[in-house]
Amino acid sequence: MTKVAIVYHSGYGHTKKQAEAVQAGAAAVAGASVDLIAINAEGNIADAEWETLSAADAIIFGSPTYMGTVSWQFKKFADASSKPWFSQQWKDKIGAAFTNSATMNGDKLSTLHYLFTLGMQHSMVWVGTGLMPANSKAAQRNDINFVGSFSGLMAQSPSDSSPEEGPLPGDLETAKLFGKRVVETAAKFKK
């Protein structure tokens, strides 16, 4: 059994939808056990959820991009992770991350760099998307990895869209492939 925990914050519901797509892709892999952990509006998770993170083989971080970085709620969670950091509880776990913002760029890479740095602080082994970008003239908005990210998963949801309208289907399919890749990588490291 490969245990994966997806810990994320979602302010408006778009990042939650992205997290659920990552979960669906991860759970589709035989032998995967996937827990979805939502950081609440106050930036907290339950004690049992900290234990879930400690027991996981892989941890996937997720946050919307607000003002060029993670939400304050995710940052509060990250600061609270200094407890497992001190005892290196997450050392050598697989780490990965995703983010969503209203614009195509939206400084999402800054958010992924923050999440990568958090993973490196915890001595994790980082996994990117492993997906080529859809960057030809024939590319369509709903192609896999249209946003063109390598270091982590990116999605775009228009600022006036509901979670039912965004992220778009191509971004959600990319999220499923990303979840699958993280589980498969974690399984290789367990051997």
Description:
- The protein has 191 residues and is α/β, with parallel strands linked by helices.
- The longest helix is centred in the C-terminal third of the chain and has 22 residues, at 169-190.
- Helix 1 (14-27) crosses helix 6.
- The chain has 6 helices and 6 strands.
- It starts with a strand and ends with a helix.
- It has helices at 14-27, 47-55, 72-80, 82-86, 108-121, 169-190, and strands at 2-8, 32-38, 58-64, 94-101, 125-126, 153-156.
- This is Flavoprotein WrbA.
- It comes from Herbaspirillum lusitanum.
- InterPro entries: Flavodoxin/NO_synth, Flavodoxin_CS, Flavoprotein-like_sf, FMN_Rdtase-like_dom.
Short description:
InterPro entries: Flavodoxin/NO_synth (IPR008254), Flavodoxin_CS (IPR001226), Flavoprotein-like_sf (IPR029039), FMN_Rdtase-like_dom (IPR005025). The protein is of the alpha/beta class.
Unreliable spans are none
Q: Main sheet?
A: 6 strands, parallel
Strand tally is 6
Helix content: 25-40%
Helix/strand-derived category reads: alpha/beta
Q: What global shape is seen?
A: globular
Number of helices: 6
Could you spell the SSE succession in H and E letters? EHEHEHHEHEEH
Q: Could you report the average pLDDT, rounded to the nearest whole number?
A: 96
* Distance linking N and C termini: 11 Å
Whole-number radius of gyration? 15 Å
Portion in beta strands: 15-25%
Keywords:
alpha/beta, globular, Flavoprotein WrbA, six-stranded parallel beta sheet, Flavodoxin/NO_synth, 191 residues
